[in-house]
Amino acid sequence: MLLLFVALSLVAWLLLFDDARARVAAHLGRWQRAVGARATRGWSHTANAAGASTRQVAAGTGRLLRGVHRQRLWLLGALLLAGVPPLLILTLRQRVQLDSYDATLVRAEDERILQLLRGERLAPPPPLPPELFLAAEAGMIPAEPDAVTSPAMGQTNNTFALDRIGSADRRWERIHPEFQQRVLAIYRVMEQQHGYRMVLVEGFRSAQRQAELAAKGGGVTRAGAGQSCHQYGMAVDSALYRDGKLQWDMRDPWVRRGYFLHGELAQQVGLEWGGSWRSIKDYVHLEWKAPCREARRAARAG
Protein backbone atom coordinates (compact mmCIF):
# COMPACT_ATOMS: atom_id res chain seq x y z
CA MET A 1 0.00 0.00 0.00
CA LEU A 2 2.83 2.41 0.89
CA LEU A 3 4.70 1.53 -2.32
CA LEU A 4 1.60 2.32 -4.41
CA PHE A 5 1.25 5.70 -2.70
CA VAL A 6 4.94 6.52 -3.26
CA ALA A 7 4.75 5.50 -6.93
CA LEU A 8 1.63 7.62 -7.53
CA SER A 9 3.23 10.58 -5.79
CA LEU A 10 6.41 10.28 -7.89
CA VAL A 11 4.48 10.15 -11.18
CA ALA A 12 2.32 13.12 -10.16
CA TRP A 13 5.48 15.06 -9.26
CA LEU A 14 6.96 14.46 -12.72
CA LEU A 15 3.69 15.33 -14.46
CA LEU A 16 3.04 18.59 -12.68
CA PHE A 17 6.47 20.17 -12.25
CA ASP A 18 8.79 21.12 -15.12
CA ASP A 19 11.67 21.51 -12.67
CA ALA A 20 11.24 17.88 -11.61
CA ARG A 21 11.61 16.64 -15.17
CA ALA A 22 14.64 18.88 -15.63
CA ARG A 23 16.27 17.36 -12.55
CA VAL A 24 15.63 13.85 -13.80
CA ALA A 25 17.12 14.73 -17.20
CA ALA A 26 20.15 16.28 -15.51
CA HIS A 27 20.73 13.15 -13.45
CA LEU A 28 20.53 11.03 -16.59
CA GLY A 29 23.05 13.29 -18.27
CA ARG A 30 25.49 12.99 -15.39
CA TRP A 31 25.06 9.23 -15.44
CA GLN A 32 25.86 9.24 -19.18
CA ARG A 33 29.08 11.21 -18.63
CA ALA A 34 30.11 8.97 -15.75
CA VAL A 35 29.71 5.86 -17.90
CA GLY A 36 31.84 7.44 -20.63
CA ALA A 37 34.55 8.48 -18.14
CA ARG A 38 34.91 4.93 -16.84
CA ALA A 39 35.81 3.58 -20.28
CA THR A 40 39.55 2.95 -20.81
CA ARG A 41 41.58 2.85 -24.01
CA GLY A 42 41.78 -0.93 -23.90
CA TRP A 43 38.02 -1.04 -23.93
CA SER A 44 37.41 1.70 -26.47
CA HIS A 45 35.02 -0.36 -28.54
CA THR A 46 33.03 -1.36 -25.48
CA ALA A 47 33.06 2.22 -24.24
CA ASN A 48 31.85 3.55 -27.57
CA ALA A 49 29.04 1.00 -27.63
CA ALA A 50 28.13 1.83 -24.03
CA GLY A 51 28.19 5.53 -24.81
CA ALA A 52 25.95 5.04 -27.80
CA SER A 53 23.55 2.95 -25.77
CA THR A 54 23.53 5.54 -23.01
CA ARG A 55 22.83 8.31 -25.49
CA GLN A 56 20.00 6.27 -26.95
CA VAL A 57 18.55 5.68 -23.51
CA ALA A 58 18.84 9.36 -22.64
CA ALA A 59 17.25 10.39 -25.94
CA GLY A 60 14.41 7.90 -25.46
CA THR A 61 13.89 9.06 -21.89
CA GLY A 62 13.77 12.66 -23.05
CA ARG A 63 11.13 11.83 -25.64
CA LEU A 64 9.15 9.90 -23.05
CA LEU A 65 9.25 12.81 -20.60
CA ARG A 66 8.18 15.27 -23.28
CA GLY A 67 5.30 12.97 -24.22
CA VAL A 68 4.30 12.63 -20.58
CA HIS A 69 4.40 16.41 -20.21
CA ARG A 70 2.10 16.91 -23.19
CA GLN A 71 -0.41 14.34 -21.88
CA ARG A 72 0.07 15.13 -18.20
CA LEU A 73 -3.55 16.05 -17.47
CA TRP A 74 -4.95 12.89 -19.05
CA LEU A 75 -2.37 10.73 -17.29
CA LEU A 76 -2.96 12.42 -13.95
CA GLY A 77 -6.70 11.82 -14.30
CA ALA A 78 -6.13 8.16 -15.12
CA LEU A 79 -3.85 7.76 -12.10
CA LEU A 80 -6.44 9.34 -9.84
CA LEU A 81 -9.17 7.05 -11.19
CA ALA A 82 -6.93 4.01 -10.65
CA GLY A 83 -5.46 4.96 -7.30
CA VAL A 84 -8.08 6.85 -5.32
CA PRO A 85 -10.80 4.12 -5.10
CA PRO A 86 -8.45 1.48 -3.58
CA LEU A 87 -7.14 4.05 -1.11
CA LEU A 88 -10.68 5.01 -0.09
CA ILE A 89 -11.71 1.37 0.28
CA LEU A 90 -8.73 0.54 2.48
CA THR A 91 -9.22 3.71 4.53
CA LEU A 92 -12.96 3.40 5.07
CA ARG A 93 -13.34 -0.37 5.16
CA GLN A 94 -15.20 -1.97 8.05
CA ARG A 95 -14.89 -5.35 9.64
CA VAL A 96 -17.22 -7.88 8.01
CA GLN A 97 -19.55 -9.74 10.37
CA LEU A 98 -21.72 -12.77 9.85
CA ASP A 99 -25.42 -12.03 9.65
CA SER A 100 -26.00 -14.19 12.72
CA TYR A 101 -24.05 -11.77 14.95
CA ASP A 102 -25.65 -8.89 16.77
CA ALA A 103 -24.23 -5.51 15.77
CA THR A 104 -23.31 -4.83 19.41
CA LEU A 105 -20.92 -7.77 19.64
CA VAL A 106 -17.31 -7.24 20.66
CA ARG A 107 -15.03 -5.83 17.95
CA ALA A 108 -11.60 -7.12 16.95
CA GLU A 109 -9.89 -4.15 18.59
CA ASP A 110 -11.06 -5.34 21.99
CA GLU A 111 -7.70 -6.28 23.54
CA ARG A 112 -9.00 -7.05 27.01
CA ILE A 113 -8.63 -10.83 26.70
CA LEU A 114 -5.07 -10.60 25.37
CA GLN A 115 -4.15 -8.26 28.21
CA LEU A 116 -5.48 -10.76 30.71
CA LEU A 117 -3.53 -13.58 29.12
CA ARG A 118 -0.31 -11.56 29.27
CA GLY A 119 -0.92 -10.38 32.81
CA GLU A 120 -2.16 -11.98 36.00
CA ARG A 121 -2.93 -15.67 36.34
CA LEU A 122 -6.68 -16.00 36.65
CA ALA A 123 -8.21 -18.15 39.37
CA PRO A 124 -11.24 -20.34 38.64
CA PRO A 125 -14.51 -19.19 40.21
CA PRO A 126 -15.91 -21.10 43.20
CA PRO A 127 -18.04 -24.12 42.21
CA LEU A 128 -21.79 -23.88 42.17
CA PRO A 129 -23.88 -26.46 44.05
CA PRO A 130 -24.49 -29.76 42.21
CA GLU A 131 -28.24 -29.30 42.66
CA LEU A 132 -28.12 -26.41 40.20
CA PHE A 133 -26.91 -28.71 37.42
CA LEU A 134 -29.34 -31.48 38.31
CA ALA A 135 -32.19 -28.99 38.09
CA ALA A 136 -30.83 -27.66 34.80
CA GLU A 137 -30.63 -31.17 33.38
CA ALA A 138 -34.20 -31.88 34.39
CA GLY A 139 -35.40 -28.63 32.85
CA MET A 140 -33.51 -28.78 29.57
CA ILE A 141 -35.68 -28.35 26.49
CA PRO A 142 -35.50 -31.46 24.30
CA ALA A 143 -34.50 -31.03 20.67
CA GLU A 144 -37.71 -32.26 19.06
CA PRO A 145 -37.94 -32.48 15.25
CA ASP A 146 -40.71 -29.85 15.18
CA ALA A 147 -38.92 -27.42 17.50
CA VAL A 148 -38.92 -23.72 16.65
CA THR A 149 -36.28 -22.80 14.08
CA SER A 150 -34.55 -19.44 13.62
CA PRO A 151 -34.14 -18.39 9.98
CA ALA A 152 -31.16 -16.25 10.93
CA MET A 153 -29.26 -19.15 12.43
CA GLY A 154 -30.54 -21.91 10.19
CA GLN A 155 -30.91 -24.53 12.89
CA THR A 156 -33.07 -25.48 15.85
CA ASN A 157 -32.94 -22.84 18.58
CA ASN A 158 -32.98 -25.20 21.54
CA THR A 159 -30.41 -27.75 20.40
CA PHE A 160 -27.51 -28.24 22.79
CA ALA A 161 -25.15 -31.20 22.59
CA LEU A 162 -25.35 -31.87 26.34
CA ASP A 163 -26.43 -34.91 28.27
CA ARG A 164 -26.19 -36.04 31.91
CA ILE A 165 -24.66 -32.76 33.01
CA GLY A 166 -25.49 -33.49 36.64
CA SER A 167 -22.67 -36.05 36.77
CA ALA A 168 -20.23 -34.14 34.50
CA ASP A 169 -16.70 -33.32 35.68
CA ARG A 170 -16.33 -29.61 36.52
CA ARG A 171 -12.89 -29.67 38.13
CA TRP A 172 -10.80 -26.84 36.69
CA GLU A 173 -7.53 -28.55 37.66
CA ARG A 174 -8.22 -31.30 35.11
CA ILE A 175 -8.29 -28.74 32.28
CA HIS A 176 -5.03 -27.94 30.47
CA PRO A 177 -3.50 -24.89 32.26
CA GLU A 178 -3.05 -22.66 29.20
CA PHE A 179 -6.45 -23.55 27.78
CA GLN A 180 -7.93 -22.94 31.22
CA GLN A 181 -6.53 -19.40 31.28
CA ARG A 182 -8.04 -18.59 27.89
CA VAL A 183 -11.46 -19.78 29.02
CA LEU A 184 -11.23 -17.85 32.30
CA ALA A 185 -10.22 -14.69 30.42
CA ILE A 186 -13.33 -15.07 28.24
CA TYR A 187 -15.45 -15.52 31.36
CA ARG A 188 -14.08 -12.33 32.89
CA VAL A 189 -14.60 -10.21 29.78
CA MET A 190 -18.10 -11.61 29.33
CA GLU A 191 -19.03 -10.58 32.87
CA GLN A 192 -17.12 -7.32 33.37
CA GLN A 193 -17.62 -5.79 29.93
CA HIS A 194 -20.85 -7.33 28.71
CA GLY A 195 -22.80 -8.33 31.80
CA TYR A 196 -22.92 -12.09 31.16
CA ARG A 197 -21.91 -14.55 33.85
CA MET A 198 -20.71 -17.93 32.59
CA VAL A 199 -20.53 -21.26 34.37
CA LEU A 200 -18.48 -24.35 33.59
CA VAL A 201 -20.84 -27.23 32.80
CA GLU A 202 -18.27 -29.85 31.81
CA GLY A 203 -14.50 -29.95 31.40
CA PHE A 204 -12.55 -33.20 31.44
CA ARG A 205 -14.40 -36.26 30.15
CA SER A 206 -13.29 -39.87 30.60
CA ALA A 207 -13.10 -42.32 27.72
CA GLN A 208 -15.95 -44.32 29.25
CA ARG A 209 -18.26 -41.31 29.50
CA GLN A 210 -17.34 -40.27 25.95
CA ALA A 211 -18.26 -43.72 24.64
CA GLU A 212 -21.57 -43.64 26.52
CA LEU A 213 -22.45 -40.22 25.06
CA ALA A 214 -21.44 -41.28 21.56
CA ALA A 215 -23.73 -44.29 21.83
CA LYS A 216 -26.68 -41.92 22.20
CA GLY A 217 -26.22 -40.77 18.62
CA GLY A 218 -25.10 -37.73 16.66
CA GLY A 219 -27.48 -35.39 18.45
CA VAL A 220 -25.20 -35.48 21.50
CA THR A 221 -21.73 -36.07 20.04
CA ARG A 222 -20.14 -37.68 17.01
CA ALA A 223 -16.78 -38.22 18.71
CA GLY A 224 -16.09 -41.66 20.10
CA ALA A 225 -13.72 -42.62 22.89
CA GLY A 226 -10.30 -41.08 22.31
CA GLN A 227 -11.58 -38.57 19.76
CA SER A 228 -13.02 -35.77 21.87
CA CYS A 229 -10.87 -32.86 23.08
CA HIS A 230 -12.65 -33.19 26.44
CA GLN A 231 -10.57 -36.32 27.11
CA TYR A 232 -7.34 -34.30 26.90
CA GLY A 233 -8.50 -31.38 29.02
CA MET A 234 -8.71 -29.16 25.94
CA ALA A 235 -12.47 -28.65 25.65
CA VAL A 236 -15.14 -27.17 27.87
CA ASP A 237 -18.89 -26.72 27.81
CA SER A 238 -20.06 -23.48 29.44
CA ALA A 239 -23.50 -22.01 30.06
CA LEU A 240 -24.88 -18.55 30.65
CA TYR A 241 -26.11 -18.04 34.22
CA ARG A 242 -28.92 -15.68 35.23
CA ASP A 243 -31.46 -15.55 38.06
CA GLY A 244 -30.04 -18.67 39.68
CA LYS A 245 -30.48 -20.80 36.54
CA LEU A 246 -28.43 -21.97 33.59
CA GLN A 247 -29.76 -20.37 30.42
CA TRP A 248 -30.18 -22.55 27.31
CA ASP A 249 -33.10 -21.18 25.34
CA MET A 250 -31.80 -19.69 22.08
CA ARG A 251 -35.24 -18.20 21.41
CA ASP A 252 -34.41 -15.64 24.09
CA PRO A 253 -32.56 -12.71 22.40
CA TRP A 254 -30.44 -12.14 25.52
CA VAL A 255 -29.34 -15.78 25.52
CA ARG A 256 -28.71 -15.87 21.78
CA ARG A 257 -26.61 -12.72 21.89
CA GLY A 258 -24.62 -14.08 24.85
CA TYR A 259 -23.66 -17.34 23.18
CA PHE A 260 -22.65 -15.63 19.94
CA LEU A 261 -20.59 -13.14 21.92
CA HIS A 262 -18.98 -16.03 23.79
CA GLY A 263 -18.07 -17.65 20.47
CA GLU A 264 -16.67 -14.43 19.02
CA LEU A 265 -14.38 -13.89 22.01
CA ALA A 266 -13.22 -17.50 21.85
CA GLN A 267 -12.25 -17.22 18.20
CA GLN A 268 -10.25 -14.07 18.98
CA VAL A 269 -7.94 -16.05 21.29
CA GLY A 270 -7.49 -19.03 18.98
CA LEU A 271 -10.20 -21.36 20.24
CA GLU A 272 -12.80 -23.17 18.17
CA TRP A 273 -16.46 -22.55 18.97
CA GLY A 274 -19.01 -25.32 18.51
CA GLY A 275 -21.57 -22.78 17.34
CA SER A 276 -19.57 -22.31 14.12
CA TRP A 277 -19.80 -26.00 13.16
CA ARG A 278 -21.88 -26.93 10.14
CA SER A 279 -23.36 -30.14 11.51
CA ILE A 280 -24.06 -30.03 15.25
CA LYS A 281 -24.48 -26.49 16.53
CA ASP A 282 -22.87 -26.83 19.96
CA TYR A 283 -23.12 -23.26 21.28
CA VAL A 284 -21.76 -24.11 24.72
CA HIS A 285 -18.62 -25.84 23.44
CA LEU A 286 -15.07 -24.46 23.11
CA GLU A 287 -11.97 -26.44 22.23
CA TRP A 288 -8.26 -25.86 21.68
CA LYS A 289 -8.09 -27.60 18.34
CA ALA A 290 -4.43 -27.75 17.23
CA PRO A 291 -2.95 -28.89 20.60
CA CYS A 292 -5.84 -31.34 20.96
CA ARG A 293 -5.01 -32.84 17.57
CA GLU A 294 -1.40 -33.33 18.69
CA ALA A 295 -2.56 -34.92 21.93
CA ARG A 296 -4.71 -37.41 20.01
CA ARG A 297 -1.78 -38.33 17.77
CA ALA A 298 0.46 -38.85 20.78
CA ALA A 299 -2.18 -41.02 22.45
CA ARG A 300 -2.52 -43.19 19.33
CA ALA A 301 1.25 -43.48 18.98
CA GLY A 302 1.65 -44.45 22.63
- What is the subunit organization of this protein? single chain
User: Could you tell me the number of beta strands?
Assistant: 7
What percent strand? 5-15%
Q: What is the approximate shape?
A: elongated
Helix content: 40-55%
Question: Uncertain runs with pLDDT below 50, 5 residues or more?
Answer: 93-109, 141-159
Helix and strand sequence: HHHHHHEEHEHEEHEEH
User: What's the mean pLDDT score?
Assistant: 75
Helix count, DSSP H or I runs of 4 or more residues: 10
**What structural class should be given to the helix and strand makeup?**
alpha+beta
How many structural domains does the protein architecture include? 2
Rg from Cα: 33 Å
Tell me the name of the CATH class of the largest domain. Alpha Beta
CATH architecture of the largest domain: 2-Layer Sandwich
CATH topology of the largest domain: Muramoyl-pentapeptide Carboxypeptidase, domain 2
End-to-end separation in angstroms reads 50 Å
**Main beta sheet:** 5 strands, antiparallel
